[in-house]
Write the structure tokens for this entry.
Amino acid sequence: MTRQLSPDDDPADSPTVRALAHAGTHEELILGSRAYCREAVREYDIDVAFSSVEWEVSTRAKRRAAAVKRPKLPDAEVGEPVDWNGAADRLGRSVPELRTCTLSLTWAAYESFDVGEWTATLRHELVHVEQFQRYGTTDHGPEFRERAAAVDATVKCPPFADPKYVLTCAACGRVVGRRYRDCKLVREHDQYRSSCCDAGVKCSRE
Ligand SMILES: [Zn+2]
Ligand SMILES: [Zn+2]
């Protein structure tokens, strides 16, 4: 049995996830990721106010697939709901300014992850946003671990490395996939055909 493999290969069914898998620009990555996150908070019951979330794409981040950039609130602690008005008064800043965090998406990670890895990354970051909005800070402690498990995300910030494996069309040489770890596709690449030339798929280590 052979399967077709194209640069757009995507196992997910949701139209949002399908669109997300096809992002070709920074703008599309933000739009697709934001649309997915809005679905995910409903599906997984994550408490996030998107009005206080800004988005950016990083082309410089090297090790983190994504990150939540946020103001540091002195004395904030996970488990202790933060008094935003009090904190803003003490720091001489407005609540909206203090409460705004930025979800920074690493472009190269998006490119090397499959869409399932990317949506799991987004859910991990949503738990950070949920904690920050509730407590004024976030970490990877016991409460985070519990929430991450509940939303089917990894506990550690998803690691990201340059892809180790490159899949190319055996006929024309075009890249039809990249994977950063040994996965089923890497092991069984001879089960796939390229969509460009309907030829075999070669796998090589970078
Ligand atoms: Zn994290
Ligand atoms: Zn080809």
